[in-house]
């Protein structure tokens, strides 16, 4: 990237662009300051007092996932792999989001737990709770570091600010509004950031398509390029998975990405679940991920398509440069696929629009990092500090700890930003982390929720074994023992983590003692009274358009249509 900075990536931002950026930062900090007035208890700080409407939490649910890695990483994947990248949305997100809203949110919201690890504590006991709490906290610091690194790189390349200045400034702004207003500040800013991101990326798609002669022109240019016509169809996606066999590629996408990685991320990742738990009612909590599914279906058109356009219009990514990058070699231009969106902005956007686009990128980075911080401070404070280190203190004490932990997490993220800097495609890094942390958790979670016999010992041994299996696959791929190009190592690692976790959990269960059934009511599906899983259909929850089942059915039908069309 530094080669590019010396080349001609610097965008000539003028006074209008800087004014727009300054206004945006003031708005973000103002929301944090105003949100502070609503924070008087730890529940207010960590879960917004469970008072937010579904449309707010639904948009925040998506914006929390629209971090730096999502926007830059998916556009990089668009330039490298083309339309198969849409699987991260249509196979790797929406079905799991609908499952979360219909099946799992009643357990989370109805049991009044404050975090996913707290659910693990009630179902499996302290060892599984502690393992989950520590692994989740570590994952959030690593992912926040990736967001910070990418943000700093973009600011360095676009505006010429040194990397360390960019990191410190971005970290300070996110820290300020998250520490002031807690989850409410993070969520209201995420709603704002969602609209800013769309306002930044939609014009880029429209102008880019106009430049290449519409979809037909884009299709022709991609077909004639190094990736070929495979990049125009979502299936079988063999370039993305790294499998030469179409059957194995589809199997990897459906099982590795669509089931294990996707369900593991969306249904057990507290970053996302926390937004739904901040809703004002059970119905609103169930609708949160379902409402989020609708904009998620359309995201490929403003995130992936600009990457595809960059791959056929940006000089630094054309022809032999693209071919070299696809072979895993350095391009003569010094560019990488991570630069696709930035290079397209450089080529297409005039001043004024540049300010909005830069604000949109910064918004995506800050939304992702704020989501990491707000979930980290909740899990660390409730599930590690309160549970094991300082029990029985007044509520004000934990509110104060939450703010201190937010500062510590930000400083730690500055350190982990340097780990992220070693990856040329940050989506590879992110999927690898998910195979370590999310895939085994999902296996333990889903088994424990639907199998009442599963024991507390099986809970923590399955988690540890599953994570170990994913790490082994990663090491085999890194050392060249197992040739898994693309993101195949993450898909195989996730599958291995899931299978090993299930196998170990089942084996250990039959050799250890289960909890009494009376202690599992509300935590295991078959033992939970069905009326406790139902939601209100009156007052603010009335109306056909507020029925979670109907909304989920519409979203699922649209998902099927998009998979058939593309």
TrEMBL record:
Record flagged with keyword Nucleotide-binding: no
Transmembrane regions: 15-34, 54-76, 88-109, 130-155, 161-180, 192-210, 247-268, 289-309, 353-376, 397-423, 429-451, 458-477, 489-510, 549-565
InterPro entries tied to this protein: Na/Glc_symporter_sf, Na/solute_symporter, Na/solute_symporter_CS
Topology term for the membrane: Multi-pass membrane protein
A Pfam family it matches: SSF
First-listed, main subcellular location of the protein, grouped into a coarse class: membrane
Subcellular location: Membrane
GO CC annotation, single: plasma membrane
Keywords assigned by UniProt, alphabetized: Membrane, Transmembrane, Transmembrane helix
GO molecular function (one): D-glucose:sodium symporter activity
NCBIfam families named among the record's database cross-references: sss
Family that this chain belongs to: Belongs to the sodium:solute symporter (SSF) (TC 2.A.21) family.
Protein name: SSS sodium solute transporter
